[in-house]
Design a protein that fits this description.
It is a single chain. By secondary structure, the protein is an alpha/beta fold. 31% of the residues lie in helices and 31% in strands. It has a five-stranded mixed beta sheet. Strand 7 and strand 8 form a beta hairpin. It is elongated, with a radius of gyration of 20 Å.
């Protein structure tokens, strides 16, 4: 690969890339960031779970409070499901249940503990039960 007129070994780890890039933020101020830092921030931002509009409405209706602790448990359950090759999963955490798309880490809908008791869940290929 050629960067700034120099041949770069494409097997070099990203953190070894010392080229600085200039970014202009919303206030038109210039800031310098290491390319590896920018890429790692982008990759890590994709680690956070997403909540669909439908799930937001259901959580509000069912008074499910999405605390940081609950988010972490859902995220860990998604990672466990991903390791098993699950695409869409029922995740049961504490007193709530969530249908999640594992690949996109998106909560599709949410259930309260009362609704979990006698329900049939379709269009899932796995379930994760966490404490």
């Amino acid at each position: 690969m050629i960067v700034n007129g120099k041949i770069i070994n494409r097997n070099v780890p990203i953190d070894k890339f010392n080229k600085n890039t200039k970014n202009i933020n919303k206030n038109n101020k210039t800031s310098e960031n290491n390319f590896g830092d920018i890429l790692n921030n982008k990759l890590n931002s994709n680690q956070e779970i997403k909540i669909s509009k439908h799930a937001e409405i259901r959580m509000k209706e069912r008074q499910i409070d999405l605390t940081d602790k609950l988010k972490d448990k859902i995220n860990n359950s998604i990672e466990r499901a991903n390791k098993k090759g699950v695409k869409d999963s029922l995740v049961i955490v504490e007193d709530s249940g969530f249908i999640v798309n594992v690949k996109s880490k998106t909560v599709i809908t949410a259930f309260s503990s009362n609704e979990l008791k006698e329900s049939v869940f379709t269009n899932i290929d796995g379930a994760v039960i966490s404490e």
